[in-house]
Design brief:
Alpha-Beta Plaits, 16% strand, alpha/beta, single chain, Rossmann fold, Serine Threonine Protein Phosphatase 5, Tetratricopeptide repeat, globular
Length: 596
């Protein structure tokens, strides 16, 4: 156990019991969606989730200013999200904020100052927050919004009265929401989720039904008048017995697509349907019986019909059929198998995926998406520290990305990967051009938005990068094609927000505990904060995973435009004790040998 000074934010949902009483599963799903949406805000201000409760959560921040700014940002976002919902589904948080000494035991925090934050939450207005006078005194000089003095309050089991200040988004003294009409007619970007198609064949054909789902997601995302959720947003529900209404609320989907695949010898049957999940209404359904050789014609039929059905429901627009990915069934089968390994995200599976993607390209050199994924793996393997980045590898990644764009100039994903490759090589203008093209092709592709953030990051426009990375993390936070948490950690480091760096690095390491860049930036941030012992421990973990790493070799893969950004990162690594060069490593090994 240890004692430390911390800022505590306690949150719960106003009227949660009433909402649960009328719609238990739907309310819980909506709560999870809101909680996921505000999570990047917590990390951007250096916070962490101490505990999730049934109707709220407890947060810890190293700074009261960061805690208060995060609270304002969270409630502002919640007001925007609620604006799209009917009154009976609007969910409003109440927040209580306090600062003081806490007892930290493992990941939990305890003490009277935690209890005060909990009590403050109980007097906050829905949609706003209540902050103690003690915390307000420290934070107010740094805030750009007005707070209201609500006087002193006595709380149960708290000896002395507590001064309270309050805030709400409209600046008034109260936030009791007025009744409003259902905004069903309001304009809103439609969000489409494609659920994993059920495999009705042998278990060994699971990759095929997953691959068909992935292809449908890709084809639908080529349309520019609605947003299609990434694979990982919907595949989390694979094999789970959840209603479409609950799923839709959890992932913020307006429409859901579901279906099944049955494969028997040379025959294939696919069924698909488009659902309005809130009402359960079936807007479109289709069944296709084909020979396996007609697979691509069938895919064209499904995606075209679905796009037209969605367009009819959302906007008056015509949907054209997407380009067929390949005419070679064997090549496509190899690609789908490679994709199934890629999404497992282990070193061994990525190696298998590389081999399968290469086989697919050998069978059909015009298979654009296989080139794009192969380029993605090349870049990621270098950044994860799984392979040594050579000139040949970077050149191949660039060539693959360029080929993918040439073969499919309508793919925002292909242009995103090309932009990423250019950015990593220091080709700033080419990277920005490709990223803007990707966003123009599909404004709702959050991956493209995030890659645009990479372009701003490498040229030193870190505030804009943080905004784009956070948007991508908020809406597609589990897509393994992009590492938003690690990128956010670096961008916050370079604006010297080291607490936020640590929050984002922690997030990346939850997913991949051996992520080389996350381990490195964590050590550098701890060193810059003067937390010497923790920095040394973090460096020890980094070096035990990557014993040949040194600063000079590491920085060779960074082509940032501003020399001061490179210098700042180098300074943090050296302060943390990462060896400067190969010579330093040899000297260190000799010294340890002599001491033993």
């Amino acid at each position: 156990m240890e004692r430390r000074l911390a800022a505590i934010v306690c949150a719960d949902v106003a009227g949660y019991s009433r909402m649960m009483g009328s719609d238990e599963a739907g309310t819980h799903a909506a709560f999870k969606a809101h909680r996921n949406a505000i999570h990047p805000i917590i990390l951007n201000h250096g916070g962490r989730v101490v505990k999730n409760t049934g109707d709220g959560f407890l947060l810890e921040f190293p700074s009261i200013v960061g805690a208060t700014e995060a609270a304002i940002a969270m409630q502002t976002l919640m007001a925007e999200r609620n604006d799209h919902l009917p009154a009976d589904r609007a969910m409003q948080f109440r927040l209580g904020i306090h600062m003081g000494d806490v007892i930290a035991d493992e990941d939990e925090v305890f003490g009277d100052d935690v209890n005060i934050a909990v009590r403050l939450e109980s007097v906050a207005n829905p949609g706003g927050f209540a902050i103690s006078a003690k915390a307000h005194k420290e934070a107010s000089k740094h805030l750009s919004v007005p707070l209201v003095d609500a006087g002193h309050h006595r709380f149960k089991n708290i000896k002395d009265p507590i001064g309270v200040w309050t805030w709400n988004p409209d600046g008034g003294p109260t936030l009791v929401p007025e009744a409003k009409e259902s905004p069903a007619q309001q304009s809103r970007t439609a969000i489409v989720g494609v659920l994993p198609f059920a495999n009705l064949s042998d278990a060994q054909d699971e990759y095929f039904s997953d691959g068909l789902t992935e292809d449908l997601i890709h084809a639908l995302s080529l349309q520019s008048f609605y947003r299609v959720l990434s694979r990982n947003s919907t595949f989390a529900f694979k094999g789970k017995n959840a209603s479409t209404r609950v799923i839709a609320r959890e992932i913020d989907a307006t429409y859901l697509i579901q279906g099944s695949v049955r494969r028997a010898g040379a025959k294939i049957r696919v069924t698909a349907e488009l659902i309005a999940p809130e009402t359960g209404e079936q807007l479109w359904t289709g069944r296709y019986d084909r020979d396996i050789g007609d697979l691509f014609a069938m895919q064209d039929e499904i995606t075209t019909s679905l796009s037209a059905a969605i367009a009819t429901e959302i906007v008056r627009a015509e949907a054209s059929a997407p380009a067929r990915p390949t005419n070679d069934v064997t090549a496509w089968d190899r690609f789908l198998k490679g994709l199934s390994h890629y999404y497992r995200q282990t070193k061994e599976d990525l190696s298998t995926a590389v081999e399968l993607f290469r086989q697919a390209i050998a069978l059909d050199p015009k298979l654009s998406i296989a080139h794009a994924y192969l380029a993605t793996i090349q870049i990621q393997s270098i950044q994860f520290g799984w392979v040594k980045g050579t000139r040949e590898m970077w050149a191949e990644a660039m060539q693959l990305a360029e080929t993918s764009v040439r073969l499919d100039p309508r793919s925002s994903f292909a242009f995103s990967i090309l932009s990423w490759a250019h950015a990593m090589e220091g080709h700033d203008e080419a990277a920005m051009d490709a990223a803007k093209r990707a966003v123009a092709l599909n404004p709702y592709d959050m991956g493209a938005r995030g890659v645009l953030g990479i372009c701003h990051f490498v040229i030193g426009e870190h505030r804009r990068a943080i905004e784009l990375f956070s948007m991508a993390a908020q809406r597609d936070n589990s897509d393994p094609r992009y590492q938003w948490a690690a990128l956010n950690a670096f961008s916050h480091y370079l604006v010297r927000q080291y607490d936020a760096t640590l929050s984002w690095a922690r997030e990346q390491l939850y997913v991949n505990p051996n992520h080389m860049q996350a381990l490195a930036i964590r050590a550098a941030a701890l060193a810059q904060l003067g937390r010497t012992a923790e920095a040394a421990e973090a460096t020890g973990v980094l070096m035990s995973n990557y014993p040949t790493l040194n600063v000079d070799r590491h920085l060779r893969n960074f082509h940032w435009k501003r020399p001061e950004d490179i210098a700042h990162y180098r300074d943090g690594l050296l302060k943390a004790g990462v060896p400067a060069s190969k010579l330093t490593l040899v000297q260190s090994d000799l010294r340890r040998a002599a001491e033993s």
